Amino acid sequence: MxxxxxKEKPLASTKTSxxxxxxxxHGKENPDPVEEANKNNAKANTATQPPPATQVAKIxxxxxxxxxxxxxxxxxxxxxxxxKNRELQKxxxxxxxxxxxxxxxxxxxxxQCCVLFDFVSDPLSDLKWKEVKRSALNELVExxxxxxxxxxxxxxxxxxxxxxxxxxxxxxxxxxxxGAEFDPEEDEPTLEAAWPHLQIVYEFFLRFLESPDxxxxxxxxxxxxxxxxxLLDLFDSEDPRERDFLKTVLHRIYGKFLGLRAYIRKQIxxxxxxYIYETQHHNGVAELLEILGSIINGFALPLKEEHKVFLLxxxxxxxxxxxxxxxxxxxxxxxxxxxxxxxxLTEPTIMGLLKFWPKVHSPKExxxxxxxxxxxxxxxxxxxxxxxxxxxxxxxxxxxxxxxQV
Length: 406
Fold this sequence. Notes:
Layout: H1 3-15, H2 18-26, H3 33-48, H4 50-60, H5 64-74, H6 102-112, H7 127-146, H8 155-167, H9 195-210, H10 216-219, H11 225-233, H12 240-256, H13 261-279, H14 285-297, H15 305-315, H16 328-341, H17 346-355, H18 362-378, H19 381-399
Helix pairs in contact: 1-2, 6-7, 6-8, 7-9, 8-9, 9-12, 11-13, 12-14, 14-16, 16-18, 17-19
């Protein structure tokens, strides 16, 4: 019987705290070394197992917090002057109206669409009236697309004013003010909260511009330099869907209003100058270059001095901006278009590229090499001989680059 308590003591010591185990071991005259080793192992195991696992689990639960912040960022919206009287009355359908009443009803519906709603602070407010406006906008798009002879002189000020009221607004501050490079594959763009209405307004205005009844001579009273300037300001929108519509709208205006062409080119130049030398942050550079690509394609020969200056003073310096990868395909297309039009520009163009050639940024160097390849496809032999020596010096440096892609 005296041996029984001795057998139970090791079991009790594993269940009690380390202090109790120490006290119990003092009660023995000759403690067993095997028991002591077991106790030490038990201490080590209890010290290393559960706590870190629970802490890691708790840390994992904090992941949704940045997701919530991101969600708030995506809901950023432009600053609108929300209309006070937003209770819209549903008007009869245009197709059901008598022919002599349709123009007045058309104007009433356009004016209804000038009412602005809140999509940010209270997205669920005025749902009924928002749906009335959305239905009216869809009906206007269908009416302008399918009917003929409806774009009368009275419609021009109403339609253009409705577009301006809905679209010309103060854009929200950039979600990435530091100007870090936007990666379309990884980063999510900030979308415009009012897009359910804005999209249909853009569609209406495009159908309006493309209508066979549209007369630029009448519209030029309302689509003037101020209108174009406000339109260009919207290209800094972070929503890629809006920039895509803007690209098409500006291209249509450039094609239809000959008196605005020089002004549009000049203002795009100013945007690029600010981007290169001041801000280095603008969301619509790729879209503006895409428009310019088609404009350059239509330049008459010989090229004006103004166009050559644009190549050398605007397009080439655009290569030195850190976010080149966002718009490089469009930029390279514009440069190649110029060289196809006027081969004599090859030497200053290649010398400009060599001047801005990246020293330590390998991905950017790969982009320069790809553009150089496109230029060499269209280069004239006589022009190639002028730039051969400096070009091959740079290529020799690229061959010795430690970067595998270069």
